[in-house]
Amino acid sequence: QLQLVESGGGLVQPGGSLRLSCAASGFSLYYNSIGWFRQAPGKEREGVSCISSRGGSTNYADSVKGRFTISRDNARNTVYLQMNSLKPEDTAVYYCAADPILFRLCVLSDEDFDSWGQGTQVTVSS
Known about the structure:
- The chain has a six-stranded mixed sheet, with no helix packed on it. A four-stranded antiparallel sheet has the order 1-3-8-7, with no helix packed on it.
- The protein is an all-beta fold.
- The chain contains no helices and ten strands.
- About 35% of the residues are buried.
């Protein structure tokens, strides 16, 4: 059974950092693009970042460019999202998801992703 589990969320002050993890089980994410998405209360889900299979190309939302970095550790079957210089507007539930089409280059569209995790809460507040 394909499963993705997010972890690493929490409460952090503005300007702080967090690293989110997306661990896969039941499949090897080596062949899949993995995306990070977030949803704040009262807002639609938005794409944050994605990384193509085999550690290829990456994409970032304009709002996080220069602050967030996505990476993958295929040996650990895990994708990470390093978030620096966090702002209150980054507060949201963060989800990871896998593209079911192998080797497809990633784009920040949730229509290209399924196998969603349960989410991890990130709160940026002083």
